[in-house]
């Protein structure tokens, strides 16, 4: 099937929900040494302070550890937590030698009470050892584009060579929030998990006070060590917009995040992106063409400045073969900001097109052929 690429500028693609012009107010006064606010949808940085400065990140490390554990699959298989891995200082989900647990429970133990025992146990179970898991963390970081990050352990305890930046942690969080299970766990104020020997239900409470303090907060992770000091990654939703905020070494992190998020939200609104419909020629069908329509309505939260830098590229088939069923994906619309893809929408058939039956004359020809009426045409007597 041949594909035709069609590029459409945003000028014909966006519907402004209102005509009010927005601009970000003056930068907030915050306590953090390093900070960033990112649009979770587009990846645009809306505020930054030493955003690319390498710094210890404490237990915000567990965002990566949890993401890799979820991506490893098999979340509900029971296994015995490695007895050496769970012997670790600092915060704990309460694992003891011989405890039976699941990867899902460990993820809850990492994201809510920030269990170092959970992080280590998950690492050994997924990769075989904590060093092998650290290698996985660094490979995944490279895939995400975290160019100023290096992981040494799964928990975030202070270690030489273990660091990231506010910007890189925002990139990581943007990726992690695409995982529905991660999003669900990190946004929970408490969860009931089963572990022990034998397993029993335990209630784990979230250390992220922002979930209750800030309206619309959906996560993500706290952190503290003597070297890193207070670290916090948060995400919040408001009026169709989603933001990610990161602070490193922030004595007043709860207040910092409220200021940063309020500041950024005040300059954002939701835009409907109008996507085009097309008609593709049908070969061998009962109709000459089939309409291709966007599979979903697209609303994107962003600043007015971002909205002016969006473009849409369509991948549309020149023709398709019948049979076609309503809802079949036959093309796509790729939505870009500054040339970087941030949303992909399927173009689907809005109606079914059955295969066309051959003309009656073809059937007559075949019947005569089988009955010998055309044998002479093949050189037989």
Tell me what the structure shows.
With about 375 residues, the chain is an alpha+beta fold. The chain folds into 2 domains: about 1-25 and about 270-380, D-Ala-D-Ala carboxypeptidase, C-terminal domain (Peptidoglycan synthesis regulatory factor (PBP3), Domain 2), CATH 2.60.410; about 25-265, DD-peptidase/beta-lactamase superfamily (Beta-lactamase, 3-Layer(aba) Sandwich), CATH 3.40.710. The chain has 10 helices and 19 strands. It has helices at about 60-70, 105-110, 115-125, 130-145, 165-175, 180-185, 210-215, 255-265, 305, 360-370; strands at about 5-10, 15, 35-40, 45-50, 80, 100, 190-195, 200-205, 215-225, 230-240, 240-250, 270-275, 280-285, 290-295, 300, 310-315, 320, 330-335, 340-350. The strands form 5 sheets. A 7-stranded mixed β-sheet has the order 1-16-18-19-14-13-17, with no helix packed on it. A 5-stranded antiparallel β-sheet has the order 4-3-11-10-9, sandwiched between helices. The longest helix is centred in the middle third of the chain and has 15 residues, at about 130-145. It is globular. The two termini are about 45 Å apart. About 40% of the residues are buried.
């Amino acid at each position: 099937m041949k594909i035709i690429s069609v590029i459409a500028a945003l000028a014909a693609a966006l519907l402004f929900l209102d005509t009010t012009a927005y601009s970000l107010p003056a930068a907030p006064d915050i306590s953090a040494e390093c900070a960033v606010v990112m649009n979770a949808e587009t990846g645009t940085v809306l505020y930054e302070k030493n955003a690319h400065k390498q710094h210890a990140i404490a237990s915000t490390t567990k965002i990566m550890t949890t993401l890799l554990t979820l991506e490893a699959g098999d979340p509900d298989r029971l296994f015995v937590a490695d007895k050496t891995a769970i012997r670790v200082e600092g915060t704990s989900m309460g694992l003891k030698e011989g405890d039976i647990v699941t990867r899902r429970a460990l993820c809850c133990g990492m994201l809510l009470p920030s269990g170092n025992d959970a992080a280590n146990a998950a690492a050994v179970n997924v990769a075989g050892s904590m060093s092998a898991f650290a290698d996985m963390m660094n490979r995944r970081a490279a895939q995400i584009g975290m160019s100023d990050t290096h992981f040494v352990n799964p928990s975030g305890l202070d270690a030489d060579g273990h660091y990231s930046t506010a910007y890189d942690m925002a990139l990581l969080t943007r990726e992690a929030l695409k995982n529905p299970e991660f999003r669900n766990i990190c946004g929970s104020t408490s969860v009931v998990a089963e572990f022990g020997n034998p397993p029993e239900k335990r209630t784990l409470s979230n250390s992220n006070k922002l979930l209750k303090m800030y309206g619309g907060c959906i996560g993500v992770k706290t952190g503290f060590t003597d070297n890193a000091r207070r670290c916090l990654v948060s995400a919040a939703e408001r009026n169709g917009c989603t933001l990610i905020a990161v602070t490193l070494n922030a004595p007043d992190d709860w207040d910092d995040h409220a200021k940063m998020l309020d500041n950024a939200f005040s300059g954002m609104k939701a835009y409907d992106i109008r996507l085009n419909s097309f008609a593709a020629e049908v070969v061998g069908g009962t109709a000459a063409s089939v309409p291709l329509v966007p599979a979903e309505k697209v609303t994107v939260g962003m600043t007015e400045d971002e909205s002016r830098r969006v473009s849409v590229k369509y991948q549309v088939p020149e023709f398709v073969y019948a049979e076609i069923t309503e809802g079949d994906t036959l093309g796509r619309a790729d939505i870009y900001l500054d040339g970087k893809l941030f949303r992909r929408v399927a173009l689907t058939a809005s109606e079914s097109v059955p295969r066309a039956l051959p003309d009656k004359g073809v059937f007559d020809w075949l019947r005569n052929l089988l009955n010998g009426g055309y044998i002479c045409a093949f050189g037989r007597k």
